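#data-curation
PF: Archiving a pair of folding outputs for the training set. Convention for this channel: one message per protein, sequence first, structure tokens after, nothing in between. First:
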Amino acid sequence: MAFYHMQMQQENIDTGQYQVTVSDRLNNRPIENARVRISYTGVPDSTIEEVATDSSGRTPVIELKTPPLEYSMEPVEQQPYSEYTIQIEAEGFEPKEIAGSQVLADTLSRQPTTLNVMESGETFQRIVIPPHTLFYEYPPKIEEAEIKPINENGEIVLSKVVVPEYIVVHDGPVNDSAAGNYYVRYKDYIKNVASSEIYATWPDDTIRANVLAIMSFTLNRVYTEWYRNKGYDFTITSSTAYDHKWIYGRNIFASIDRIVDELFENYLSRPNVRQPILTQYCDGKQVQCRNRGWMTQWGSKALGDQGYSAIEILRTFYGNDMYINVAEAISGIPA
């Protein structure tokens, strides 16, 4: 394992930007003067950088080595991002470690984290961020109808398309009762999924197309109360077999962060269909789509390279009757 990480470091010839944000979990207030040590994942004792947070809880933006930019532009065998481990300590708070924080070339990666107030007896929290979906084989999506029948008796369906303030994410497959449920702000959820599903180095319109597909899929789950109608107490899962990949505690890329802020009220629709479309997709390389009418992530990248707009990319895969729509309301968790 150590040899693998040494080899990875030797391939790190480009650089990306990296910033850590530290806040108090209890009240979300920024934590000043938190000490942040950064090392290569796999070699945690070799500190590369040691920085402190300012009054807004942020570290300075630092340059870190990454694999070549080209690795994220084509499906290659080499890992296109470097992985760093950060150790965070602040007076009065429990220390924390995050392993596997991802940094891509020419891209700002932000690692948000929260600390617990120190109780009696020191405890230590460790989060491990698993590999990116484009670099690792996760279970393929189980095919579903993109428009749900919503006239069944007793089924709760919202009267209008609502962007919820929070959604409840079940961190595992549907029937895994041991998996935790997390209340996540809708915007933060979409940013997390997009950072886990596509590379932030891709063209802006490719990112927009993928973000719109992720949001539309998610809002279909909200609108149809898909899991609650089956007796579950969550909105969506983190399993790629059922939904998208969501990774607890992961870093977010700045280009994705910006585009989600720009688009977050939007979703995809077809004529005379009220519900957001359940836009399914696959990467098109490691996992082939079950259905020809799905978007492939690498295919969307190729179209973005050719100058296609977001809606042109989406219509190439989903058909010419796909439209971008705006949600009517933004609210708390629909109940």
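PF: Second:
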Amino acid sequence: MKYRGNFFSLPNEIFLLGLSPGELAVYCYLRRCENQKTHQCWPSYKTIGDAVRMCENTVSKYIQKLIERGLIAVEPTKVTTKAGVTRNGTLQFTVLPPQDVIARHYERELEELELEAEQQRLQKILTKQNQNDPCTPL
């Protein structure tokens, strides 16, 4: 019998982004819920909170942080009742490709390393100038 388990994938690099445990839990739940073709899902804050054992306000806080990090996008939806009245629907979550966020993370790290190397280079030049300049005040 071939097992077709109920699982989702998560790139290893997601752990390099410095997500808090709460952010990671909410992100993982959204990845679990997402449609693999559209990358969208519609769980309520209550549903997410029940799954990851958080209150709705805490889920909302972590959702906002995931939006700021560029890992998800959230849009409100509208529904029309049989009577023709338009009402607010559930939130539509789109799980964005984590590769973009991971690439930005690596770019920031590279920029920091380049800046550090430049600072070290300038420090060496200043040290050398101070050693060669006999007129430096005491």
